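Q: Predict the assembly, please.
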Amino acid sequence: MSLNVSNLTVHHGAICALSQVSIAVPTGKLAAIIGANGAGKTTLLRTLSGLKTPTNGSIMWKGEKIAGIKPEALVRRGISHVSEGKSVIPELTVRENLELGAIWRRNAKESKESIDQVVSIFPRLGERLQQRADTLSGGERQMLAIGRAIMAKPQLLLLDEPSLGLAPLVVEQIFQTIRDLTTSMNLTVLLVEQNAMGALKIADLGIVLNLGKVVAMNHAQVLIDDPAVRAAYLGY
Amino acid sequence: MQKLLETFLIGLSTGSIYALMSIALVLVWRSTRVVNFAQAGQAMLSTYIGFEIATRTEIFWLALIIAIAAGALVGAGVDYFFMRVLFKHAVSGPAAVVAPVIATLGLLGLVRSIVGLVWGGEFKSIKAPASTDGFTIGETTLPFSPLNLLIIVTVFIILIALAIIFQRTNLGLSLRASAYAPEIAQLAGIRTARTRTIGWAIAGGVGGVAGMLNTASNFLSPYSLDLLLVFGFIAAVIGGLESMVGSVVGALILGIALTFILNYVGTSLVFIGGFVVLIAVLLLKPDGIMARGKVRRA
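A: Predicted assembly structure:
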């Protein structure tokens, strides 16, 4: 059930955002994707979830080619994407945002059970189920966005900068939760992060993108110890 | 005192028809970001179909149901055959913003010509489902009639039904999510294009009711719903264009205000009155009466 991407090329109009990207992430592993702004990290996630159609290359998921399939169909194949910037709908209540994640399953009972599960992971959401999402703090919104993705019972979770704009203590909590979820739900996770050190610390493997190309892919600990990676992305 | 109450009640009846048109416009605006001028045409076409049923069967309620179905079909058709194609071709730039709105104007003209060809330009009327003679209390007959009351009740029932659909069902949640944040809705597995077409169908059906109720208390011609479109739009702007509740409140305020002008000032000022209300709202509360400050967007 692993994810295999080979020679993936993606364009934004005339600009080449990803060039010949090949990565492999085994089932149940957490991969941190790091790199500077404009390296193509977000584009990679958006292509994997179907929001963006690749120009070339293939994406294999659970042994099937999925490049070019629409996001609403990929959700049904177990791929959930939490897009950049706390992807919750502010006008809806916390409960509605969660229900949204399970809406395609058309099963009210399962949806309720999933809400209980999310609340047990993020108890603070449980206290706020009836509130509108725009009353939540940044950290709570990120919890809600991840919770919505969990509601879909995913096998592949794509997370785009969950630490963005959050206080260090909250970032630590969110990262720990992501790590725990990966293990307990046997998820395959792609975690895009500016906070490279934080992401590599919880990851099994690390992938470094630069200007649309993969420049390094290895065990996370190996990358942390690599002097070149340290200098370029970890800041020391 | 009696005149005051009467004016208020008739205003409520008039305003409730505006409310339906206003909701139809808001639904489309929220999901598609298009001010749907064709709504007057869609409602008119549905009402002419309802008129045919009403004349043949003399059962108003059957005609109303057929008009709702026709309105829903036409609404879905406009989205499916016109808007989808337009959005596919005009993806960005000024054309993408302007083309759909111009297209709805063109559609309005087209429907008007077709209706004119089929039914002619003369005034038609549908037999009202209730008496248009005012209620009588003792010796005095009021202008407020059983038909006015029936209109208020019918609209109220439809509003309740819409509220249940939007607040309590998965379809409603899909419609709201797709309107507020199409990308997040898509990532949650909602088929947003299909959902939008359903939204247009609901708007079309509601427009059909507005056309039928307006015709029952008035008459029908290829132009008879134009004023309803204008007032429905003003009501939607008063409500902030985004909020269905706001548009209903806006429509009732507008209906009552215009009836007061009609009864206390004069017929000639009604039309101007509508625009005075519009401009006043735009100057004082441009985000509409329901605005609760800026929504925090992440």
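Confidence is low (pLDDT under 50) at residues 294-298 of chain B. Chain B touches chain A through 21 residues (CB under 8 Å).
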